[in-house]
Amino acid sequence: MNPRKDLITIDSLSDEDIRTILESTSAMKDIFTKSVKKVPALKGKSVLTLFYEPSTRTRSSFEVAANRLSADVTTFTVSTSSVVKGESVHDTIDTLMSMKMDYIIVRHKNSGIPAVIARHCKASVINAGDGAHAHPSQAFLDAFTIKEKYGEVGGKRVVIIGDILHSRVARSTSTILRRLGAEVAYMGPGPLVPQEKHTGIPRFTNWEQVFQWKPDVIYLLRVQNERMDTPFFPRGDYHQAFGITEERLRRIDDLNLSIMHPGPVNRGVEICDAAMDYRNTLINNQVENGIAARMSILYHLTPQTQNND
Ligand code: CP
């Protein structure tokens, strides 16, 4: 893989970049089985996590990943920082860059903020989710989880169900899966599913269409109320219309389909309790693989700060 400073979107990566990061994810996961779960790959390097939006999985798994590569990790907590006194993103980054960070992992509610930061600093910047735009590390862990389950991503059919319109996960994960040769379809409430003519991705609005399409993987999304100023669809019973109910779970089981979800999950909305414990539910695998995928991403990026060594 050619030296690459930042990871902002999947679109910015070559096929070779994608293949290399995925292949190393497997090697990184092998480290988990060792009694000492740590390698010195990033010893002496500094990693900062800078999250302007809440996160459980992404932030903690990036921090675990950086620790397992022996980097020094600093968590920037926005709610107790000078951001609450009105300090801008630009000035915050300037301040933090004076501390000579090598990697900055950033999440922000506005699309484009990680790209702007990447242009202004020598550190490697990793987009940990920006608005409804992109979430590339999620895409890598999703692709890896499907590869691990089926041996190959190519040829698999994945239907992404829910609030596609506001989902950075849908955008990044559908991009990487299609680049790897999978077929992707979208299903959800009409106003939340983009038209096929704009995306090239088949668009369904009910479960019968989903089952007729014969997917291998059902990938659920949360309805992202925080990105809607006004309701986009009548809020009747979302679970009955679009969720995995116990009845649908029986059909999914008969067809031996897998279930994925990036988290956080809203039980009783997009997924019933029983589906969380279903034999082919890969949600915990996604979380575990998130650490390995993020180790691989950190390992393959090259901060410009390294030129000063
Ligand atoms: N999937 C995901 O981004 O989860 P968090 O918001 O908990 O990081």
What can you tell me about this protein's structure?
Helix 1 packs across helix 12 and helix 2 packs across helix 12 (283-300). The longest helix has 18 residues, at 283-300. The chain is built from 12 helices and 9 strands. The strands form 2 sheets. It has a 5-stranded parallel beta sheet. A 4-stranded parallel beta sheet has the order 2-1-3-4, with helices on both faces. Helix content is 39%, strand content 14%. The chain is α/β, with parallel strands linked by helices and 309 residues long. It binds phosphoric acid mono(formamide)ester. Phosphoric acid mono(formamide)ester (CP) binds at residues 55-58, 129, 138, 262-264. The site of phosphoric acid mono(formamide)ester (CP) has 9 residues, from helix 2.
Quantity of strands, as a count: 9
Strand order of the largest sheet: 7-6-5-8-9
Could you estimate the helical fraction of the residues in percent? 25-40%
What is the first-to-last residue Cα distance?
A: 21 Å
Give descriptors for this structure.
309 residues; alpha/beta; five-stranded parallel beta sheet; four-stranded parallel beta sheet; 12 helices; 14% strand; binds phosphoric acid mono(formamide)ester
Please outline the helices and strands.
Blueprint: H1 15-31, E1 46-51, H2 57-68, E2 72-77, H3 89-97, E3 103-108, H4 113-120, E4 124-130, H5 136-150, E5 157-161, H6 168-179, E6 183-187, H7 196-199, E7 203-204, H8 207-213, E8 217-220, H9 238-242, H10 246-254, E9 258-260, H11 273-276, H12 283-300
Parallel strand pairs: 1-2, 1-3, 3-4, 5-6, 5-8, 6-7, 8-9
Helix pairs in contact: 1-12, 2-12, 5-6, 5-12
